[in-house]
Design a protein that fits this description.
The chain has 320 residues and is of the alpha/beta class. The protein has two domains: 2-238, no CATH class; 259-319, no CATH class. Helices cover 36% and strands 19% of the residues. Strands 1-2-3-4-8-10 form a six-stranded mixed beta sheet. Strands 7-6-5-9 form a four-stranded mixed beta sheet, with no helix packed on it.
Length: 320
């Protein structure tokens, strides 16, 4: 039974597709947007591929409920579970989907590496990632009082699903067991081999905690109500547009005068040859006619005679 499909992320896709066209973002911000868009597209496609195989296998099941794309927030911690399968025997399967474009390499220490065109990149272990999410889920189950008949919490199992065309280089099984890392199309055979064919002790424990389909559907609905979708329009702080100071107006320089003029302007004339002060206008006090600098200078040099005024040559006798 399928209780919850994956959330629609079209708004997020549109945001990441449109923002790189903005003129207010710098090169680094646009590069991050392109990388994030590629990661989101691959993630959506990987989850869609895995959901296809899981839904085909469990859609008519009377022993399981399936929820896709769950995001829980508890005490400030976040658990993002790509697919959650709950069975009547109190088992919960956390499925982590990865859509790697390169070859996946797992070494003897459980370290994961992806190889693209002979270049290798270390990546976070999806198994450890699923275990971290599982610890948050366990606390949530306790809070919601989801327990078996023996008051025991559901048993959590972790698996990683890859694209059917993925290539996986595995370590020796004795060094590190990778049976829980499979290709999506292998799920039916994996489930039959590692889940349905458990030992007598495991089967007996499951029988003691066996619940009805209605009960596990109720549990699934409880968990579905705890789903807290991420803000599809949220961006990290460094994606905020940079504040650009307004450009200063460009002042065109005047034509450069001849060198001799420049030098003459740079060197002030002697005190006696400088232009008159604002009060000493080159205007005749008597007739109001314009006078020459020489006429004015003569009057100023004889300020006592002309009472501090200036006259034209014709009226200097009047002023004197």
């Amino acid at each position: 039974m399928i209780l919850k499909p994956a959330d629609n992320k079209d708004r997020r896709l549109t945001l990441l597709e449109d923002l790189p066209q903005s003129a207010v973002l710098d090169f680094a911000q646009k590069k991050w947007l392109r990388t994030e868009l590629m990661r989101l597209r691959k993630g959506i496609q990987g989850e869609k591929d895995s959901a296809h195989y899981l839904d085909s296998y469990f859609k008519n099941s009377e022993n399981h409920v399936v929820l896709h794309d769950l995001r829980f927030v508890l005490d400030g911690e976040v658990a993002q579970i790509d697919h959650l399968i709950i069975n009547r025997g109190l088992g919960m399967y956390l499925v982590e989907t990865k859509n790697y474009a390169g070859n996946l390499i797992i070494n003897d220490h459980g370290e994961f590496t992806v190889e693209y065109d002979d270049v290798q990149f270390g990546i976070e272990s999806p198994i450890e990632q699923s275990h971290r999410h599982g610890r948050i889920l366990e606390r949530l189950l306790e809070k919601l009082e989801i327990v078996g008949r023996t008051q025991k919490q559901p048993e959590l199992f972790h698996m990683v699903m890859l694209h059917p065309k993925a290539r996986i280089q595995r370590p020796d099984a004795k060094a590190f067991d990778t049976n829980n890392v499979i290709k999506a199309d292998q799920f039916p055979s994996w489930h039959g081999q590692f889940v349905e064919s458990k030992g007598v002790g495991t089967i007996l424990k499951a029988a003691l905690n066996m619940r009805s389909l209605d009960t596990i559907r109720e549990w699934g609905e409880k968990l579905k109500r705890q789903h807290r979708p991420a803000d599809l329009m949220a961006l990290p702080d460094f994606m905020k547009p940079k504040v650009v100071a307004p450009a200063r107006p460009v002042v065109m320089a005047a034509a450069v005068p001849a060198q001799s003029t420049v030098l003459a302007a740079a060197v002030p004339p002697p005190a006696e040859e400088r232009a008159p002060e604002p009060a000493r206008r080159l205007i005749c006090t008597h007739c109001g006619a314009k006078i020459s600098y020489a006429e004015g200078k003569f009057c100023w040099n004889n300020a006592k005679r002309f009472n501090g005024q200036q006259y034209c040559r014709e009226h200097q006798g009047v002023g004197g």
